[in-house]
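=== RUN LOG ===
request id: a7f3
mode: sequence -> structure
chains: 1
length: 132
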Amino acid sequence: MINTGKWTPYILALLRIMAALLFLEHATMKFLQFPGPIQGVPYPLPALLLVAGAIEVITSALMLVGFQTRIAAFIASGEMAAAYFMCHTPYGFWPALNMGEGAILFCFIFLYIAFAGGGACTLDNARPPATA
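=== RESULT ===
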């Protein structure tokens, strides 16, 4: 039988890094219009989207390198929950119809990372333990 448990921290780190990169892409769309502008959003951005973009830049950068990963993931999870209820549910209940699947997936992936930690290869793991 294959011991898959030894790979778990590395797969968790891969999930953390990929989710952070995809989350950062949403911020670059807001601030740099890269890889393209957000469809249907006026520029300059409304204040709420500026705050959302700032949260996305900060939390995705922290999660990418694995620094304060749990806190960053928890904040990002909350942002995605708020985004779903504010931006998607007005278009109906079902996520497949209101285009909210991404927000829900980000929310629960980040919630998982907030509780499981960042896995292997994090700055959090490189720091010496706190002394009392």
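=== NOTES ===
The chain has six helices and no strands.
The radius of gyration is 16 Å.
=== END ===
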